[in-house]
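User: Run a structure prediction on this.
Assistant: Running it now.
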Amino acid sequence: MILIGICGCVDKFESAEPDVDPTIQMLTANAWTCASTWTDSDGTEHENRQIWSFDDTGNGYFKLIVRDGDSDPQERQNIRFQWAFTNQSFKVLCINGDAFIDRRYWLIESLTDSGLSAYTSMRDPVIYPGYDRTLLILTATTR
């Protein structure tokens, strides 16, 4: 007997309408921003700002804005992507876009009107629970 399994993103509207699930409402209501700063060995301060935006049609965009020293911020990446929940729990997002080398998965730990924290991984955390992951903490911003 041969058993073949197929995994991937499923259409987020397959099991619920967008106005029924509060996760979809909160995720699509704002853009989500994460910023980090550091100073290199010569004393130059750097800042990276990630902006993630999800719309209710399953599309979104990612922007990376970088500032080095006293320079003006520069947009380094502007990537369009598709997103969907991987199952009916509305806890795992699958993010896929041409500019991303591989799919990305977000295991949502917390989602409120003002904040989103999720573990990011290159593999589905439900299927590969021990795979490397990074905690991403984002703040809601106006689009």
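Residues 22-29 form the longest helix (8 residues).
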